[in-house]
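Notebook entry, structure prediction.
Reason for the run: the old model in the group folder had no record of what sequence produced it. Starting over properly, with the input documented here first.
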Amino acid sequence: MFAVRDPAGTPSLAGLPRLPLGGLRCEDARELLAAAIPGRLDERVRDRIVAETRGNPLALLELPQGLTYIELAGGFGLPGALLSDRIEDNFTRRLAGLPAETRRLLLIAAVEPTGDPALILRAASHLGIAVDEDDPAAFGGLLRWSTRVTFRHTLVRSAVHHAASPAEHREAHRALGEVTDPVTDPDRRAWHLAHAARSPDEDLAAELQRCAGRAQGRGGLAAAAAFLERAAHLTPSPGRRARRALAAAEIKLQIGAFDATSVLLTAAASGSPDALQQARIDLLRAKLAFASSDGRDCASLLLSVAQRLEPLDAGLARAAYLDAVAAAMLTGRLAEHARAGQIARAARRAPTQGEPCRIDLLLDALTLRFTDGYASAAPRSRRALRAFAQRDLSAEDSRWLWLASAIAADLWDDQCWDVLAGHHVGWAREAGVLHELARALTSRAVLEVFRGALPTAKALDDEARAVTETVPGGAVAYGGLWLAAWRGCEQHAAQLSRATAAEAAARGQGIGVTVTHAAGAMLANGLGHYERAMVEARRAVESGGLAAPNWALTELVEAAARLGHRGAAEQAFADLSQMTGASGTEWALGIEARSRALLSDGHRAEPLYREAIERLGRTRISTDLARARLVYGEWLRRGRRRTEARGQLRTAQEMFTATGAEAFAERAHRELMAAGAKAARRTVAGRSQLTAREAQIARLAGDGLSNPEISTRLFLSPRTVEYHLGNVFAKLGIASRHQVGRALTGVSGHGRPE
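New structure, fully documented this time:
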């Protein structure tokens, strides 16, 4: 097989069969670009990138390597180098031989990111550059002039940038700014004029500040942050420059631009800030430390800032307390100083002002949760959830949707969790807040696992992992761990558990360690390893926090009951029932009835099993419904009611099979056989059904390639390759890459038996 760019230039290959390879279709190229840069981009800039790369997948996938979403500023930034320096050097040499006027025209086209031919013509005319649109030679053969102006190769733009001097860049920007319509496109005009400025200019800085909000509507928070950052740079007054730098830093932190945040905070601190400004700077520094590094001590830093803010700004102080409580909750037992209970007690003493806002409601719910307990906090929690379930959320409110979703999960309120997680994903995508998007996708993925929608959960987890690779730091994506645990993929789950626990510990996020134990308990119960399930569940419960410890209690009740550890089971149920009773949702009460039935004897158990099935049947939590039918069927079989047992067990097995829960399906199968059923073991849906990407990675692994070699060949990160390979092991029922070759025998490219 030969690959050549121009077959006509290789006569020795004449007469051989050919397979011409063109670029991706526009809609496919846009989808691939969105995967490479998941944040929001100005549509005109996105279309120009697609047109300029001509659907070349390599160029689209390599774009984040040369310029990140944050650097693109939602479409206001300037695309830079995409591929090899060698090719760019070739174009640089070609540029050197062109007339000066042609190079100036190319530079105008290079710094105008939308490719608007009319705008480029006006800017060229403003500089006295004559342009013959019908003469390709006028562009040195490097520019394509049509309804959109594009460069003939993705690296020409970069070569043009690098070949021009700072003065020439300013000239091009100034020309574009002066001919851009101030009425129809004031933001782009201000952006170009700002890059043309040689010295501070208050009028221009003020205009950039005014444009930031509109820019956010087109390019997300990254665009707003870029405008505010440039405004700060152009501000002559030290005090005003510090205020603008602080505003830019707040948004830069949200989008994950940690280095820029640090620089802006230094600039803000240099402007002789007053007490309130200094407290805001320190608040952002604490948030930055928690987001970008080990967060073990950040809760205490946030608590200190919140206390300093109380006499200065009560509203901001309460928001800082909420940050501190959230940090302590995420840090969990890894916190070095302040714990959630200590911070919650301090927050309850904080002054309030006027009618409580959404942040106040959320803070009140959490402080009660960590001081007075679950039952006392439940009414306040429901009130906070109702407030956040509305659609008129501000950007400040929206960034707390992850915490509201966690409270909904903690309350076993699947309907509210669904609404809040949906709002969170939608807002994070729209605003281009990638840190929040990863957290939102993970929350949604875990919910879909509980619903039994495993393909949806996997797609969400894949996207979350892609986002976490795009931005540094941020939340740990653990949706895949829950997915593997529910599927009963012991090897894959163990691998993900180790990786998740290590990553969470390295970032000081104790909640990630708690999640690994809770998922491990569910996996062990599915496999029938009840001793291990008890150990994992106890560790999760002792870790504290929201949601995951509650779910671990249900696993602890089942494991202890199966082992005959009556005392441990009853204590776990007592703790569980206090919460489920206070929650009052069908999911919670169904869990309570199922757990109580496991501890009940004789005729008292059956109505509880039936109640659990009835209540859980009114929810969309199909996983717990299937488990209720399983334990009811097991109880019926032990009571020698084999015919009735087979009905429940067969239904449970079918539900497990449909959702891909291999371990639970096998457990139901064993019980069916013990109940006298003659049915053959059913194949769990999805087993050995590799996706195209998984099959591709499996073949390369079977050929002996290492993960780094596979990642290089497929333009994926080693972490992504490892994740897909884990799915391959689980689906093929193997434990190592040495078994891949044999397991693939007789399997087609998409995993279907031939």
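Summary: The radius of gyration is 30 Å.
The old model has been moved to the deprecated folder.
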